[in-house]
Design a protein that fits this description.
- By secondary structure, the chain is of the alpha/beta class.
- The chain has one domain: Glycogen Phosphorylase B (Rossmann fold, 3-Layer(aba) Sandwich), CATH 3.40.50.
- The chain has helices at residues 45-56, 76-80, 97-110, 119-136, 161-173, 185-193, 217-227, and strands at 32-38, 62-68, 84-87, 114-118, 144-149, 179-182, 201-203.
- The protein has a 7-stranded parallel sheet with strand order 3-2-1-4-5-6-7.
- It is globular.
- The N and C termini lie far apart (64 Å).
């Protein structure tokens, strides 16, 4: 049956009703469970961005879980302070059918609203684990799946053989996530050139915290005085 367009509400006079501003208290945000699936938690750019995202998104309405495929690395303690941390303790390249079942069992237990993969291995694991969990638990069927790709494909031949295969497999599976988040337009174009779905593209730049990285005239003057430089000397920070 064809769905008819909905007409705007009208007053008794026949004129369209005007939407009134909300003056009362805003409704509380809906509770949500978010699960991030990452390859590892070492000191990498993607892992640091995951930590920033988790720290920025802390709220009473959101329960955040971080699943690392490998043992928790250097950023594990910081993430454990703001999220519930889980580790599959896999060796490098050790994602197997049994590991997928373990991840699916965890997702079935957590019943997430959103599953966010990080990096190629994490994206694949999130996809397979959630697919299995959806088959085991009806409430997991509501969960949205997102991928996160944090790098360009400038020299794919330099990647490990297994990583190259997972990158190719990702192209075939790229219709499964609701969105693929890239941190740069060039990364999106390079992946789409090898088959990643362009319709899934979402580009969100890394960005910086303006409260933390802001000009400080006093620190600027102190540094120039220590270096014996005048106020008009050109300095380049590296």
């Amino acid at each position: 049956m064809e769905e008819l367009p909905t007409a705007p509400p009208v007053h008794a006079t026949g004129t369209p009703a005007r939407a009134l501003p909300i003056t009362g208290p805003r409704p509380a945000p809906l509770a949500a469970t978010v699960v991030h699936v990452a390859t590892n938690l070492e000191l990498g750019g993607a892992q640091r961005m995951l930590l920033k995202l988790v720290e920025a998104g802390v709220s009473a309405a959101t329960t955040t879980h971080v699943v690392t495929l490998m043992p928790a690395g250097a950023l594990g303690p910081a993430l454990a302070a703001t999220a519930r941390l889980h580790s599959l303790d896999l060796a490098r390249g050790g994602f197997s059918p049994m590991a997928a079942v373990r991840l699916a069992s965890l997702l079935r237990q957590l019943q997430p609203d959103l599953v966010q993969g990080w990096m190629y291995h994490g994206n694949l694991a999130a996809s397979v684990g959630l697919a299995l969990a959806r088959g085991l638990e009806r409430r997991c069927a509501r969960a949205a799946l997102l991928w996160n790709i944090r790098g360009a494909l400038d020299a794919p031949e330099r990647e490990r053989w297994l990583t190259r295969q997972i990158v190719r497999l990702g192209a075939r599976l790229s219709g499964r996530p609701e969105a693929i988040v890239y941190n740069a337009e060039v990364a999106a174009r390079q992946h789409e050139a090898i088959g990643y779905r362009a319709q899934r593209r979402q580009v969100i730049g890394n960005g910086f915290d303006p409260d933390r990285f802001a000009p400080d005239p006093e620190a600027k003057g102190n540094l120039r005085a220590r270096l014996g430089l005048g106020p008009n000397s050109v300095l380049i920070g590296i």
